[in-house]
Design a protein that fits this description.
Radius of gyration: 19 Å
Shape: globular
CATH superfamily of the largest domain: Medium-chain alcohol dehydrogenases, catalytic domain
Helix content: 25-40%
Largest sheet: 7 strands, mixed
Oligomer: single chain
Mean pLDDT: 95
CATH topology of the largest domain: Quinone Oxidoreductase, Chain A, domain 1
Number of helices: 12
CATH architecture of the largest domain: Alpha-Beta Complex
Number of domains: 2
Order of helices and strands: EEEHEEEEEHHEHEHEHEHEHHHEHEHE
CATH class of the largest domain: Alpha Beta
Strand content: 25-35%
Length: about 325
């Protein structure tokens, strides 16, 4: 089968499209004929080796974190899925494998595809939507919360804005000038053009911040948060509790303690909590997200659909950080 594989770590010359053996089906897995696969900034980080300290993959490794497709076979312990079912999934974080003509998916990581979405649209949902869902859970966002979501036109941010509104929160978001109207249309109560003004100057202090950018944006977010508030990041330094929640062991906890020492100190100085989120695959949450889509309560923003043989171009586009919604690889010609 054709697959996009990682042969080493680095920004160039490490990703190739080659023939690979088909995956072996486990007793609690689905064998999926992949129709489309979402491309994410995470794929670029994996390619560049930025996650090697927390997760190493035996090389060559088939890349890809999320997919949509049709079930071709089921393991003997699988319940709730049958051959011919259309599904979408965030694949196992330890093995990847979505950028291939066939992939194996654990039954607990998959959900039936929303009927309102095409295969291409569905492939762009799992990773970003689950990340946003779980971040808002960690933040404790609910009715009456004041929350700031960074990069509201991005894959993760666009879902986070919508989920926060569905939970009854007041939502502010940042976006470039060309995306201000789009993010407002997603439901944000206040949208700040970060190219024209600093969000902390334009915004009354908030209870919660979801940081998808990191760097100085994270530091400024700490100062935009009320005392006893909370900032959750997917782009800053991981902290020890994140390692504990992932079961990474004492070494990772110690490493993250050191890596996050600076941001945790700055957060304590202003009386704000800081947490890092490692998203986990969750088929039940994904099914609930699919229900919201089918009830027309949730929009899926698409940036571009790229043919499978241009996977390297799609990764380069993701690397720019300028995608407006999701970039998706179409593995079958009729999906492109």
């Amino acid at each position: 089968m054709k697959a996009v594989i990682l042969t080493g770590y680095g920004s160039t010359g490490t990703v190739h499209i080659r023939d690979m053996p088909e995956p072996t089906l486990g007793e609690d897995e689905l064998l999926v004929d992949v129709h489309a696969a979402g491309i994410n900034p995470l794929d670029v980080k994996i390619r560049d080796g930025k996650l090697r300290l927390v997760r190493r993959f035996p090389l060559p490794a088939i890349m890809g974190n999320e997919l949509s497709g049709v079930v071709a076979a089921v393991g003997r312990a699988v319940r709730g899925f049958e051959v011919g079912d259309a599904i979408f999934a965030r694949v196992d974080k330890r093995h990847l494998g979505a950028f291939a003509e066939r992939a194996c998916v654990h039954q607990s990581h998959a959900a039936h595809k929303p009927s309102r979405l095409s295969m291409v649209e569905a492939a762009g949902v799992p990773l970003a939507a689950l990340t946003a869902w779980q971040a808002l859970d960690l933040l404790g966002v609910g009715a009456g919360s004041r929350v700031l979501v960074h990069a509201g036109a991005g894959g993760v941010g666009s879902f986070a804005v919508q989920f926060a509104k569905l939970r009854g929160a007041w939502v502010a978001s940042t976006a470039s000038g060309r995306n201000v109207a789009l993010v407002r249309d997603l439901g944000a109560d206040q949208v700040i053009d970060y190219t024209a003004q600093r969000f902390e100057d334009a915004l009354e202090p908030v209870d919660r911040v979801f940081d998808t950018v990191g760097g100085e944006v994270l530091d400024r977010s700490l100062r935009a948060t009320r005392r006893d508030g909370l900032v959750v990041s997917i782009a800053g330094a991981p902290e020890p509790q994140a390692a504990m929640m992932e079961g990474m062991g004492r070494f990772a906890e110690a490493l993250f303690w050191l890596a996050s020492l600076g941001v945790r100190r700055r957060a304590r100085r202003v009386g704000v909590g800081y947490r890092y989120l490692f998203m986990r695959p969750d088929g039940q949450q994904l099914a609930e997200i699919g229900r919201l889509i089918d009830e027309d309560k949730l929009r899926v923003l698409m940036d571009s659909v790229v043919p499978f043989d241009r996977a390297l171009d799609a990764l380069a586009h993701a690397e720019t950080g300028r995608a407006r919604g999701k970039i998706v690889l179409a593995l079958r010609a009729h999906e492109a």
